[in-house]
Amino acid sequence: MTEPKMIGILGAGRVGTAIARRALAAGYEVRIASSRPASEMALVLQFVAPGAVAASAAEVMADSDIVILALPLSKYRSLDPAALRGKIVVDAMNYWAQTDGTLPEFEGVPTSSAVIADHLAGARLLRAFNHLGYHEMDGEARPAGDPERRAMAIAGDDAGARAVLARVIDRLGFDPVDAGPLDAARGFAIGTPVFGAPLGREELQAALGVPLAA
């Protein structure tokens, strides 16, 4: 695909709006949908992500080059697989039983993204954004070459989609680290040493077993 121009975000909580701010700062067009009507969301976005455009979920899925899932995990079954077929879709959600409640389908699976991938069969599903806190999206972004720049992992079975997202993450202010197939997302899941850790590129590559030359 050509370089993405429009980033769509499903979910307007702290993670979704933090990604929106970074994407806007990097020069992308941003569309956001939430459970609220778009007219109500537009007022909220004026304060939390000025420049982002409120839209319906259907519009976000249809019009965006990349769709980021930042909604409560329990809502994943509301996503229409047909609407996301062939799209680059980024799962930024985490399973927190304490807040999501116990969701049986996510208990004991290697990664929550495996469940999302089964539901969204046909989408070019990736895993990213989940191991950094929303406050770090804003506060830790740095220009390329900055020695304090943080790294962000990407996993997914579509190498082309990983490459596209890597360029987006670089523009957002983080060093992308290609962890490989979707199953590799278990290396930066909740409870791993990587989750929430302030790691640079080489540190994250070492933690995930990615060759330093990659």
Structure description:
The chain is 35% helix and 17% strand. The protein has helices at 14-25, 38-48, 57-63, 81-84, 97-100, 112-119, 134-139, 159-172, 201-208; strands at 6-10, 29-33, 53-54, 66-69, 88-91, 124-127, 151-156, 175-180.
Task: Please sum up the structure shown.
The chain is an alpha/beta fold and 214 residues long. It contains nine helices and eight strands.
Name of the top-level CATH class: Alpha Beta
Q: Tell me the span between the first and last alpha carbons.
A: 22 Å
Task: Note the overall shape.
Answer: globular
From the coordinates shown, what is the CATH architecture? 3-Layer(aba) Sandwich
Mean pLDDT: 93
Helical residue percent band: 25-40%
Number of helices: 9
Following the backbone from N to C, one meets helices and strands in this order, namely EHEHEHEHEHHEHEHEH
The third-level CATH topology is: Rossmann fold
Counted up, domains total 1
Give a quick set of tags describing it.
oxidoreductase activity; 214 residues; eight-stranded mixed β-sheet; alpha/beta; 17% strand; NADP oxidoreductase; STEAP_metalloreductase; Rossmann fold; single chain; NAD(P)-bd_dom_sf; P5C_Rdtase_cat_N
